[in-house]
Design goal:
Oligomer: single chain
Shape: elongated
Radius of gyration: 23 Å
Distance between the termini: 16 Å
Helix content: over 70%
Number of domains: 1
Strand order of the largest sheet: 1-2
Length: 231
Amino acid sequence: MIIDLENIMKLDMSYPGISFGYHSWALGAYLDSLENFIGIAKEQYRTRVKHELRIIKDEIYSDEHYQQKLREVDEAADEHIPRYARMAAIVPLWGIFELTVTDITQYVAQREKVKIKQKEIKAGNILEQIQKYYDGILDISLPWSKIQLNEIALFYKIRNAIAHRNGEFGDDTPQRKREIKDAVSKLEGVTMRGHQLEVSSEYIKASSELVFSMITSLNQMVSDRYDGPTI
């Protein structure tokens, strides 16, 4: 690998996108190891709880009740542990997107000498706010396609459903249930089991690729605009 010293000297160390490199590496390593973790967690849970049940079996349970408890352990290991572990990956994935994009946007505003801040823009949600800020205040076109914007908007809805309600909708309002079901119907790898949201490893992978791609293209836009490289 050839090191371009001229480009290295041009690095703007105040640029927030630089931290995206190690943030994305850490998150990527976590996501890559997630399925292995799920397999280990399932077997550890199954082994530990069944061992505890065997110790107290004769004192507390009839044979029928004991067999039912074993089935419940298997259900928890095979269904609930993977569900919660995979859902937990969604929140930091959105977090790295929101943090990096808003920090880069602040940097752009400073370079453009714009005094109005992104957080001052009234909008329905953070994505709408970002788009309104670039279009109406910065007068800069975001490097994202309509498909990407639609996909990240759906991802944001899934993230909110997990972050605010842990993917549970049993006691939610009819309108909120319709909204989440509508979002799920448009996505591959996201399902509803009863009133519980479930995400697949394939959806996590696709979402991480979407997030990293959108941040990378934003980084490149900033680099090109201010005679980079910025990262």
